[in-house]
Specification:
This protein has about 290 residues and is an alpha/beta fold. It has helices at about 20-25, 45-60, 80-90, 100-110, 125-130, 135-140, 155-160, 175-185, 200-215, 225-235, 240-250, 270-290, and strands at about 10-15, 30-35, 65-70, 90-95, 120-125, 145-150, 190, 220, 260-265, 265-270. An 8-stranded parallel barrel has the order 1-2-3-4-5-6-7-8, surrounded by 5 helices. Helix 2 packs parallel to helix 3 (about 80-90) and helix 9 packs parallel to helix 10.
């Protein structure tokens, strides 16, 4: 199994705010998105790029995964953002408004020669992306694209489709499901969109639980107060981890070699449950290692 990196909580931080970039080093988020796009005014784009890339080069973010969100390739800043980010060597570069695989191929060309461990994350946030999501995810087959993760841009999807934000997100469920299915078909991680009302913690928790149950790896966040609840909800519960270990151990017994179905504590389990359990245990172990 490929090494798992927890992405329960992925916090956007404004790239133009030096204090925020410093504070991010102390937050318990699994990953940070240092934003050069929506959070930065046009006249501050160049200075924010310099500040963010300088912060990434300086380090100090510990086990947190550090991602730089560039401006789009159709803007005056996008290409320079990507080239500067490649020199800074973050864990990944987030590309906004990816609506076709050709965008990812162009990004891959810009990153040719950059360190192999810099991955590309893609924002899924336009109607065009939803209509072409299978081809976009299939771009991961071309290793030059470096595609590793989808990020749902639910605010932009709502803007472009005129869908309303309602409890339970009924208008968005088809898009969330389609993007998640496309991501899993190509072995990609996928992160749920943001929750806008930072004062409504009950609503936030409910949406995290919905995203977890859908199968998302974690949630993108807009405020530090959202980090701890996301970490809690997207972590496998202790009882689930214990049960997974028990199933794995049962199938590993010599007398059960080659068996596809077993009875464990009076419950029938299949070998596929052991495979699912291995991921649960791997996620739990990765979280423990990160915290320890």
């Amino acid at each position: 199994m490929t090494a798992i990196r927890p992405r329960r909580s992925v916090l956007y931080m404004p790239g133009s705010n030096a204090r925020a970039l410093e504070k991010a080093k102390t937050l318990p988020a699994d990953a940070l998105i240092l934003d050069l796009e929506d959070a930065v005014a046009p006249d501050a784009k160049a200075s924010a790029r310099e500040q963010v890339c300088g912060a990434v080069k300086a380090g100090g973010y510990g086990p947190r995964e550090v991602i730089i969100r560039a401006n789009g390739l159709d803007t005056p800043w996008g290409r320079d953002d990507i080239l500067a980010a490649a020199v800074a060597r973050p864990d990944g570069i987030l590309i906004p408004k990816v609506s076709n695989p050709e965008t990812l191929q162009e990004v891959g060309k810009l990153l040719a020669g950059a360190p192999d461990n810099i991955r590309v994350w893609a924002m899924v946030e336009t109607p065009a992306a939803m209509l072409d999501i299978a081809r976009i995810s299939a771009a991961a087959r071309d290793r030059s694209t470096r595609l590793a993760c989808f990020v749902m841009g639910t605010n932009d999807l709502a803007k472009e489709t005129r869908a309303r934000f309602v409890p339970g997100r009924a208008p968005m469920l088809p898009w969330l499901s389609l993007a998640l299915t496309a991501a899993r078909a190509e072995g990609l991680d996928i992160l749920d969109g943001v929750y806008n009302n930072i004062s409504d913690m009950d609503g936030f928790r409910a949406e995290c639980e919905q995203g977890r149950d859908f199968g998302f790896d974690g949630k993108t966040l807009i405020h530090p107060t959202q980090v701890e609840p996301a970490n809690e909800i997207f972590a496998p519960p202790a009882a689930e981890v214990e049960w997974a270990r028990k199933i794995i151990a049962a199938f590993q017994l010599p007398e059960n070699a080659g068996k596809g179905v077993l009875s464990v504590d009076g419950k029938m389990v299949e070998i596929l449950h052991a495979e699912m359990g291995k991921r649960v245990v791997a996620v739990a172990d990765a979280i423990a290692a990160r915290q320890g």
